């Protein structure tokens, strides 16, 4: 693909990163740009890539009228093969195990609980390799997913009055909510391991995450068809892929140069991480307790209202009977 179609070096590196999570070809400039723009996650093969692959696979077989259970079962070896091609990194293993649990629940018509699936995946990974607990990939993957599971519904609920019935606004709010949740879950670890915090990710993921889907699928298609099909057919897949990669590169270049969106952290003690998550846990528990109190108050008010209506109706019936 590189030789025939003349991708430039950075575009080729991005394509390889998105497909396989390989970043060895990244120039220092490209690596810094992606990091400062908050886009490094698109080249760290994880749940995003596996979800895209699973969705594309199910959509393809669904087009040919395969039964849903058959599609789900056939997806399991595809997930395993993809995880193998990426070297079974902790982040992809976490995503693969969670997706496998989802498929099993779907086939058995059971309820899927994402939080339970997350902790089961962490237990299995650490059971086979306890040293994964010290892996940056595992830590970022686990805490970003945990934050998305816990915070995403809350943010969407808070912003529901803004979106109304608009599907476009709901999609935008959903993307912002996911980005913000992941940022909250990983910010202290990124500061500790990489010495910088980028707020750009909250903004750029609004269009980069949806763009990764087509780029990922078309890139994989090119890998299979480029060696066997004529160039003019391959160009149908190449041009939109190249355009998507150029958008990613341009976005990284622009947002990496917006200085106020990223902060350099020279010293970040592990104790700051502990304090951060204790504070976050207290805030989360407090908001959950406040929500339950409001719901209980609403339920009590509703019961009182029904009781008053019942008393009024009983009194009215009694008066009418006496009359």
What helical percentage do the residues reach? over 70%
Average residue-wise pLDDT: 81
Largest sheet: 2 strands, antiparallel
Q: Quick one: how many beta strands? A: 2
Strand order in space, largest sheet: 1-2
Total helical segments? 12
Structural features, described:
With 323 residues, the protein is mainly alpha-helical. Helix 5 packs antiparallel against helix 6 and helix 6 packs across helix 7. Helix content is 79%, strand content 2%. A two-stranded antiparallel ribbon has the order 1-2.
Question: Which helices and strands, and how do they pair?
Answer:
Layout: H1 2-5, H2 9-20, H3 28-36, H4 47-63, H5 68-85, H6 90-107, H7 114-128, H8 136-163, H9 167-194, E1 196-198, H10 200-225, H11 231-256, E2 262-264, H12 270-322
Antiparallel strand pairs: 1-2
Helix pairs in contact: 2-11, 3-11, 4-5, 4-6, 4-10, 5-6, 6-7, 7-8, 8-9, 9-10, 10-11
